[in-house]
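Bench notes, afternoon.
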Amino acid sequence: MPETETSGGGQRRHPDGRVELDPAVGELPPNGFTSDDLRPVPVARRTWTTYNFLALWVGMAHNIPSWTLASGLVTLGMDWKQAVLTIALANLVVLVPMLLTGHAGTKYGIPFPVFARASFGLRGANLPALLRAAVACAWFGIQTWIGGEGIFLLAGKLMGESWRTAGELGGYPWTQLLSFLLFWLIEMAIIARGMEALRRFENWAAPFVIVGALALLVWITVKAGGLGPLLDQPSRLGWGGGFWKVFFPALMGMIGFWSTLSLNIPDFTRFGGSQRAQIRGQALGLPTTMTLFAFLSVLVTSGSEAVYGVPVWDPIQLAAKMENPVGILFALLTVLVATLSVNIAANVVSPAYDLANLLPRLVGFRTGALITGVVGIAIFPWRLISDPHMYIFTWLGVVGGLLGTVAGVLIADYWALRRTRLRLAELYRPGGAYWYAAGWNWRAVVALLVGGVLAVGGSYSTLGAEGAKQGPFPADGLIPVLKPLADYGWAVGLTAAAVVYLGLSGVFGGGRRRRRGGADRRRRTADRC
């Protein structure tokens, strides 16, 4: 069997199924849809192994927000078994679209915004790309503030009271703002070195963070006098109706946490050495590490309640209770590495590519990353996380619902309509197979809008003990008739968008531009790759 075979349409298929541009055809012509960062990665440069993907997920899963997600479920009344079960199931569910969209990255070597061109059109792809980028910029700011808080609190233990009580600037000690800026500069320095530097960083960060989390568990276990007090916290919900009422919204929130990566995972899988490497790496990395980290989080939080009388949900606050300088320094380094590993991979890579897709002639990967960093400061992330009801639980639900609709369109188009066959060069060619109507596929846009309304239109705020709203939405929902769907936003958005897109594509010509004669035969020949 030949090493490769030319399959027409300016692309070549390798025996393992991966596709690249045919070198004989030459470079893609320069236009407003092509740049060095957006071009398909040649097969020779797709070298990521199972371990690289596993390390990527270990590094991203072990972070402060995912820690507080698990401990937050206990505050809702779950015991440790219910909390771990919820998170394990959520990550098994979100793994499915992760693998489905990741397949295109490994097969064709393309990033998320280029992949979206097949379903949304060359111009229309900017719509889901900018939606994803906006979410990533907000998360980048939040994670950077958390990392800066870690520097501020733990450094304060070493430098004394004067560090924590320094003069205020904008309502915060100037030392805390300085810590935030320092952490931001560290992130920018790493990402400026490109994707290969990110891969190397994730490789050593992953095991380091695991060791740090286990060390925190050992420390709190010793202070609590054993594992018993860590496992004795009973469920306040039981396994009846009270549990299921909390379970489904919590499940959607947990899915929403990684719904961002279920879209832009091609940004990473485009470097995959094989489909097997990306599938095994993600399947071993995401659900297992998130479940393990959830288990550690719940145990440590339960132990803090046994030691201090009240649960300490924030691991930074808990680490700040240490007295040993060596332990404090180790905790500080662990917090920094954990936050860096997730923030750079999850919240910088995607918007950098998305912004490059918007203006490929002006914005490259590094410029896009810098813009993301600037926006992350401009949104004042310290305000975004000041109200947990509004910006953690509500945030996750709405984000999950909206991004679920994008995933529904991408998966329906790539797997159901095209059966994983794309014309690689046409993804970069105005007037080609994915040009649709002036660069927009209206079917995908309509599916996105319908799915989004159904997913988040019923968003509502719960009422506190005194009847006060605990969020930004009306208690009866934005659209009251849709309120029952709000607790299942991600699933509703994904399903509705996929069904609407397939329906419109079936009625209006399959969502693809029709051609006649020899051009049509060439399309079918190219599609067989």
